[in-house]
Amino acid sequence: MRSFAPFSFARLSQTGGADVSQIKDEAPRTDYGTYLLRSDAPFYVPGGTWPFAGLGTGMSISFGAAVSACGCDDVDLIAPLMSVQDALTAGLALVDPLREVEELDLTAAKGRVLARSVRAGTDMPGFDNSGMDGYALSVGADGQAVPLVLPVQGVSAAGTAVADLAPGTAMRIYTGAPVPRGADAVVMQERTEQRGDGIAVLSLPTLGENIRLQGEDVKLGDVVLKAGTQLDAKTIAACAGAGAGRVRVVRKLRVALVLTGDELAPAGAALDSGAIWDVNTPMLSAMIAGDLAEIVGVHYVADELGSMVAALDGLAGSVDLIVTSGGVSVGDRDHVKPALRNLGAQVAVSGVAIKPGKPITLSRLGDTAVVSLPGNPVSAYVTWTVFGAPIAARLSGVAQGGPKPRRVRADTDLRHKPGRAEYRPARITGYGSDGLEVVSSGTATHSAQLAPLAVADGLVLIPGETERLEQGDLLEFLPFQA
Length: 482
Fold this sequence. Notes:
alpha+beta, 5 domains, Molybdopterin biosynthesis moea protein, domain 2, six-stranded mixed β-sheet
């Protein structure tokens, strides 16, 4: 079996997909990092011998066993890529909902998550009331043939007390007004006509018609909304109807952003040679800050292991969630994973079979969750959408949150390299003959190209095993939240 000499190494592209021509012998050294190989599926490769199908039958590569200074080749940071679903499940299992709550006036509670169920403070409705304008009468006592002529005595309007209906009479009644005692139906105004001081009922109502019964919606003490409900206009209406003028909600998440990349400069600043504008800080701030979370700090960390260790160690325990951007791959200047390892983090996910965003890492540092996103903006956007947002929602106690995927149709033939599930930015272009939306998603996903993302309505998922899709084929579409 052919192999490279011990303590020499084969260097492949650290972004994966390298070909054999990139492999070369180099002078013996012990300070190399971990490199990414691909056979049937990508692997982060530790020191030692690992078979590599791309080199030919019976061949392998031997790597020196020395541990690098950056910690990149530590065995517990090296694992085969997880599926998207397995990674999401593992990430969600890292966190539990926050227990701290606050009480808010209902008018200030939009978007917040109920920490306690809301129960009805009274029967809803609280009394029998009319479903429309008309006349209350007793069909059981007076209803015989039509037209039925009855004198009108009294008026029941919203806000008035319950009155008594005299036998053989009708009472004028308005929508929402209490039904008088002795009445068993309400005839709508359009089915009557005036006859002097009385009315002629032209069409008799049935027993109970147009009467909304006390408690038919909910009874006193019934659960109107469960804990974990994220409040919007309609659920706020339900709270008000139940008499809950103030509600107990989960406090907002405290989130810290940690950005790496010595090349980053604030958007709009003059760029030195090799510098680029920082896209991810404003983008992630806009994605994260809102109803569920607040950004309590933005930290720029030099591309150096000690600085990353110090930053993460200083934030752990003081915030609920750390979101890192960049430095999460396996290059010589990628220090997030080694820093997590040095700090004893519980790493649940270290690389996912997803495109873009393969290096995504999900971990827990003490009581603080850590979502480590790639540095390329599209990769960061996609992986926050797929992994970060659901983790934040779980931390916030949301029972069912976020947009639900739906089926759409492709507007053209699509090609895909099997191996990783691909999330492509897609734009809705119309509707098919079956009423399903038709989307345009381009021919590929480029992790650093922002223009297609800016005009996209959501992401389409191309499963990892899929090689070809034809025009009109069904796709899963994950809409972006407004």
